[in-house]
Amino acid sequence: MNDSVPPGGLTLRPLSARSVVLSLLLGTHRPELPVRELVRLVEGFGVGGSTVRAALSRMVAAGDLRRTDTGYRLSERLLERQRRQDEAVRPHTRAWEGDWEMVLITATGRAPAERADLRARLTALRLAELREGVWLRPANLRRPLPAELDLVAERWASRPGRPAAELAAGLWPLDAWSATARALLAQVDRARRPADRLTAFAAVVRHLLADPVLPPELLPEHWPGAALRDAYTDYQREQAGQVRVRSTRT
What we know:
Layout: H1 17-26, E1 32-34, H2 35-43, H3 49-62, E2 65-67, E3 71-74, H4 76-89, E4 100-105, H5 112-124, E5 128-131, E6 134-138, E7 153-158, H6 164-171, H7 174-190, H8 194-209, H9 225-249
Helix pairs in contact: 4-8, 7-8, 7-9, 8-9
């Protein structure tokens, strides 16, 4: 999901069979469904049964899913993705007292792929790069930094000299994120068909993963993060209810 809104509004591509399956399982706790139930659910989003079964076979071969005695469940790799998604929807925060987390990259001579992987991991931790090798964010998240970071970086607590709101605005594209969030809320309101709603809410989750989850005092006015989370939470409850209803009919 781009962090800007084109003049004509958002253009969301329809989800593939694979994406529909993943969206349903990533939003399900616990993320395992019987074969017949999973096929029936995916068919409800306009995907044919034969297409669903072919996608399931390919996803097992690719390591996205594990075949169980009764159905399919997310692989360990995708369980980690579900954990990140859950955290994006319900982030664990604490009162901010002005401190910032700072991570200084100390390892040298790493291959480009290793550097790219480290950047992706730091971004997923909602850190932003001030300059090469210097990553930081307000210390308002209740989450430990992975111990393996100690192999390539040093961690510090700091209070930068620049005004905190000015620093945050320079580290994250807050206005662009907010504009896209509002466009997604409008898209959700307009969507009527189940497939269109699932597509819109899949985009909502992707966008929430890019929310820096800053302290309220560092956010622009009328920040739509909470509204976007509430909309997705309501949809997740709706989907969970449909799964329960269908399960009782099986």
